[in-house]
Amino acid sequence: GKLGIGVDSNQNGLQPGKVLTSMMKRVDVAVYNAFMDGKNGTFKGGLQNLGLKEGGVDYAMDDNNKALVTDEMKAAVEKAKADIIAGKVEVHDYTADNKCPY
Q1: Which of 46, 50, 71, 98 has the highest CB neighbour count under 10 A?
Q2: How confident is the model at residue 95 (pLDDT cuts 50, 70, 90)?
Q3: CATH class of this structure's domain 4-93
């Protein structure tokens, strides 16, 4: 069968067993960081980019999709995440040149 992938928030529960995972924008992390910066007197306005390293994005694993994702798949994703965070895998910034080289 066909599987969907949710975007921006955890949508796995919308169709349990039919959504492989969801790419989550961790707005909670951004809000927490902003509040803490305000509390500590270090808040600066402007654009903040939060990627994997900063905990700003992630994927969702829960009871709604755990049967769809094998241990091998999870290990491959976790390795890719670690490699991206470590700088071993370069993620192209299409906003820099408006191109998608893939």
Answers
A1: 50
A2: confident
A3: alpha beta
* C-alpha closest to that of 25 among 2, 48, 44: 48
CA 16/CA 74 separation, integer angstroms: 18
pLDDT in tens, 41-85: 999 999 999 999 999 999 999 999 999 999 999 999 999 999 999
The pTM for the full model equals 0.81
- Domain extents in the chain: 4-93
CB 11 within 8 A of CB 19: yes
Could you tell me which of 9, 35, 11, 12 has the C-alpha nearest to residue 24? 9
Beta-strand relationship, 57-59 and 4-8: unpaired
Token readout for 55 is 């905990």
